[in-house]
Write a structure and sequence with these properties.
Pfam families: Spore_GerAC, Spore_GerAC_N
Subcellular location: Membrane
Structural class: alpha/beta
Main location: membrane
Membrane topology: Lipid-anchor
Strand content: 25-35%
Helix content: 25-40%
GO cellular component, one term: membrane
Distance between the termini: 97 Å
């Protein structure tokens, strides 16, 4: 019995044989993927933490991160080559963002996403983005306007704080859509914006990258991205941003409405056996948070009528942006909204007849948009701010 207890004690005292000790690993917090224009090889730039530089006790004078670039024919190769150039084994599980160059994305992301999925080293919740008009590595290195000392943390916060005019997509969302039937992926876009004042360059999350299957085919601007987000409900739920509308009370004055929760639905319709059309229904809640006009509304009836008029203006604005987004997607022959997915759910027989040529069908399919904007503003019962005579 004593011998058995001794054996059990030794087993309890042993550590995990495959545990990664912190002192042995190099924690990667950001990745950028480019391609060598001469050789066609992948270039992977990894941003590693330097924990000692961030220590609250005895920080070193070194920069808080290290940038390492490696080249190779495949993604697994470049990920493992990093271990040959630094003194710690690369650990990708805490990676926050993957930036992919436009050139790489246009050739297709299947090889990249397949490597991440099979290797299990990169987590599915990591943010995925496309670098527009700039190399992916360059974006990962820009430090302007960073409160965080590590660029990858700054980029992670951009995605966390995104509003309705940008897209925030993680690796899992991309997997789901690229492998799904009747829907194509959309990924967030990072760009460099030059300014006339210090720090002279900024990193901006703006617009969306449109894919046809796994290949990049074009971009949506901020207005078109808002239209996309209204249809798909993929914008942030708590902070969807704000839009400005004509005040209607005074010329050249505006009101600002804060967008809140939205509910949308795509309704397919099939007539005469093969005539397909779609209706997009959008129900958007909002509140009026800014009023430039100084005209006072004296009664509840006036307030109600005014909010209805502003709502009508907002509905026209939302409808316009949705149509711009759908028309652009039809130009790309890329069903990013899930029209085909909705058709498959509603009428699988028709979908099975159309699915092999859905890109061409989607490009020509007619649609209508119905928007209801519900604006609330108890603040209108108060007199407007205006200077005293």
């Amino acid at each position: 019995m004593k011998i058995l207890l001794v054996i059990i004690s030794f087993l309890l005292l042993t550590g995990c044989w495959d545990r990664n000790e912190l002192v042995d690993v190099g924690i990667v917090v950001g990745m950028a993927i480019d391609k060598d224009p001469d050789t066609g090889d992948f270039i992977l730039t990894s941003q590693y933490l330097r924990p000692a530089a961030e220590s609250t006790q005895t920080p070193t004078p070194d920069p808080p991160y290290l940038m390492v670039s490696t080249t190779g024919k495949t993604i697994p190769e470049v990920m493992r080559k990093a271990n040959q150039t630094i003194d710690r084994r690369s650990f990708f599980a805490h990676n926050k963002v993957i930036i992919i160059s436009e050139d790489v994305a246009r050739e297709g992301l299947i090889e990249i996403s397949d490597s991440f999925q099979r290797g299990k080293e990169v987590r599915g919740y990591v943010w995925l983005s496309i670098a527009k008009d700039i190399g992916a590595k360059e974006l990962l290195e820009i430090k302007a306007n960073n409160i965080a000392r590590i660029p990858a943390n700054f980029l992670n916060a951009l995605f966390d704080n995104t509003e309705h005019n940008a897209t925030a997509s993680n690796l899992l969302t991309y997997y789901k859509k690229v492998l799904g039937a009747g829907i194509n992926p959309v990924i967030g876009v990072l760009t460099r914006e030059e300014t006339d004042i210090d720090p002279f360059e900024l990193v901006k999350l703006s617009g969306s990258a449109v894919f046809k299957e796994d290949k990049l085919v074009g971009f949506l601007d901020e207005s078109e991205t808002r239209g996309y987000n209204w249809v798909t409900e993929e914008g942030p739920t708590s902070n969807r941003g704000a839009i400005n509308l004509p005040s209607l009370l005074q010329e050249d004055k505006f009101v600002t409405i804060l967008l809140k929760e939205v509910h949308s639905k795509i309704i397919p319709k099939v007539e005469n056996g093969d005539q397909i059309s779609f209706t997009i229904e959008v129900d958007q809640n909002a509140s009026l948070i800014g009023q430039e006009a100084t005209v006072e509304l004296e009664s509840r009836k006036q307030i109600s009528q005014y909010l209805s008029q502003i709502g009508a203006e907002g509905e026209k604005e939302i409808e316009n942006e949705i149509k711009k987004a759908v028309d652009k997607a039809q130009d790309f022959q890329s069903d990013i909204f899930g029209f085909g997915e909705a058709l498959n759910i509603e009428n699988s027989k028709v979908w099975n007849k159309e699915k092999d040529n859905w890109a061409e069908t989607f490009a020509e399919v007619p649609y209508t948009v119905n928007v209801h904007l519900n604006i609330k503003s108890p603040g209108l019962s108060q007199a407007p701010f205006k200077p005293q005579e």
